[in-house]
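Let us work through a complete example step by step.
Step 1: write down the sequence.
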Amino acid sequence: MELIQSQHHSAKSVFVISDLHLNHENIISYCKRPFDSVREMNRVLIKNWNYVVKPNDTVYFVGDMTLGNSDKFIEKLNGNIYFIWGNHDQTDDVDSMYESLPLSYKGIEFLFVHDPVITQSGFKGWTIHGHYHNNHPRLFPFFDPEKKRINVSVELVKYQPVLLDYITSLIKEGHGKITSLKKETNRIPTSRNGDRSKCCFNETSLIV
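Step 2: predict the structure and record it as tokens.
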């Protein structure tokens, strides 16, 4: 759960993650997070982020950085961050926040929004969201190809940002539902056509 060494890729990369809830003590029990204190949680989540994300990488953060003002935490995190509003977020820099954000990436249409229930009417692409944490895994798993939704709440992605290339590879492979990402091994996942995805988890044991 806590990374012990940097996992930076040499190439510039794009990551997604949601719902850090820094400084939110009750979230530890509410979502059964593996931390003994809010101080430990803050330290590990910031460390994991920076061990995965380089300063020149891009991160789509899909809401709920902290219960209070997010600005002091954003300053500690690597990457060029696109911040989508969550229901707990506050900031002095309102103009830098998005209620939702569309992205066309490697031939796939994505929409980043904190709560997928408010996905734009008529949108037919893939929604990347947070909000539901690990509390409703059947309705809001990490990867849901039937509803075309991806839940990147930290509890479902090993408390670290996940590569958008990895998500794209799951879509293109036609992968089935994945509840959460749990274990990592030393082998990079290979798709059916032989392409290797640059997954920050290396190959992941999937809980389906």
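Step 3: interpret the result. The CA atoms of residues 51 and 94 lie 28 Å apart.
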